[in-house]
């Protein structure tokens, strides 16, 4: 297959125009953020010098002017949020109330379809299983890692190995684990899991074809990735526990389990909440792992993957948008809980 530059030239032109627009917008914003504050500072300095030389009272900043100054800095962010978040969200909600071609209003029919179609109910159940298991298991492993490697020899090296999966994309991690689960009929197996089963006298299996086991095996990939993140955050929280509290507990003769349950866990509770919330949001949005490993087949699909299928593969814009809105609704309580938790920490 030969590459025809002339045929692909329009795509390169679009890419070039996009890069130019990006550089122009970002460069313009950075220039404004550098020039405007400097101009206001010079103007303020000139006013102070003039007032000092004439013996007049120093000019005071007026609140309306400060408000305009703050608005100037907030305006680019507000515009970007409107263009990239608010407007698409409103449009998605409207599309979810329309038919597949987005021509006619169908009301809540697409949302009724979510809970009446058996295949979509399976998708919702799979998503629920992901959300229940991944944050709990990943945080638990991260906490165990953090406690075990705390202040031991080669701590930095051990943490680097545990955190390494976070440096791999979800697609890359899924490809790695597909080799682990690989199946090759009879004889020698190229998949690590099947080779272990064969060496123990068992029969190799096509692991990703058996439901609901395949969903659990996909969850293992997410846990493998997120456990390193949990370990880093929780390890930092453990190291932040005041040394005098730890020493006082040891002088009182508490056991290792009592130290963990009565000192470590209460002290790192805010970090635990942050880790669980962050992993929960990432799990709700999971797409790459399912898409790469099974393409959502064999009863493994989740909301994000099904949303893509309905909107872009099957041309069902209304149903795909309804799934997107439903996913957004699921994320909202988690975000609200995190905001309230952070506010309580500041007030405390």
Automatic annotation (TrEMBL):
Transmembrane portions of the chain: 12-33, 68-90, 123-149, 161-183, 216-238, 268-287, 321-339
Compartments, record wording: Cell membrane
GO biological process, one term: transmembrane transport
Its membrane topology: Multi-pass membrane protein
InterPro entries (UniProt xref): ABC_transporter_permease, MetI-like, MetI-like_sf
One Pfam family hit: BPD_transp_1
Record GO cellular component, one term: plasma membrane
Keywords per UniProt: Cell membrane, Membrane, Transmembrane, Transmembrane helix, Transport
Domain ABC transmembrane type-1: 124-340
Family per record: Belongs to the binding-protein-dependent transport system permease family.
Name the UniProt record assigns to this protein: Carbohydrate ABC transporter membrane protein 1, CUT1 family (TC 3.A.1.1.-)
Organism placement in taxonomy: Bacteria, Bacillati, Actinomycetota, Actinomycetes, Micromonosporales
């Amino acid at each position: 297959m030969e590459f025809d530059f002339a045929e692909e030239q329009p795509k390169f032109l679009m890419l070039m125009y996009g890069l130019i627009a990006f550089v122009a917008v970002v460069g313009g914003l950075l220039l404004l953020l550098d020039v405007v504050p400097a101009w206001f500072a010079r103007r303020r300095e000139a006013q102070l010098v003039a007032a000092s030389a004439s013996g007049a009272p120093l000019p005071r900043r007026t609140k309306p002017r400060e408000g305009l100054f703050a608005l100037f800095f907030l305006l680019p962010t507000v515009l970007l949020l409107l263009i990239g978040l608010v407007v698409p969200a409103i449009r998605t909600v409207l599309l979810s109330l329309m038919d597949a071609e987005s021509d006619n209003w169908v009301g809540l029919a697409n949302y009724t379809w979510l809970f009446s179609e058996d295949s979509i109910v399976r998708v919702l159940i799979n998503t629920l299983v992901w959300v229940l298991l991944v944050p709990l298991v990943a945080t638990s492993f991260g906490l165990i890692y953090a406690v075990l490697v705390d202040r031991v020899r080669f701590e930095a090296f051990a943490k680097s190995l545990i955190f390494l999966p976070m440096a791999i994309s979800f697609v890359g991690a899924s490809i790695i684990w597909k080799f682990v689960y690989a199946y090759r009929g009879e004889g020698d197996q190229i998949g690590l899991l099947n080779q272990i089963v064969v060496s123990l006298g068992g029969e190799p299996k096509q692991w990703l074809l058996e439901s609901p086991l395949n969903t659990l095996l996909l969850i293992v990939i997410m846990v493998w990735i997120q456990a390193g993140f949990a370990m880093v955050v929780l390890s930092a929280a453990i190291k932040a526990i005041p040394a005098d509290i730890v020493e006082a507990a040891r002088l009182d003769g508490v056991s290792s389990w009592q130290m963990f349950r009565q000192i470590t866990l209460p002290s790192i509770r805010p970090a635990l909440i942050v880790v669980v919330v962050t992993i929960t949001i990432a799990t709700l949005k999971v797409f790459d792992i399912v898409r790469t490993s099974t393409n959502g087949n064999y009863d493994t699909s989740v909301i994000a993957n099904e949303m893509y299928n309905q909107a872009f593969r099957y041309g069902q814009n209304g149903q795909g948008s309804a799934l997107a809105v439903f996913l957004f609704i699921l994320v909202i309580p988690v975000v609200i809980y995190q905001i309230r938790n952070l506010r309580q920490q500041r007030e405390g």
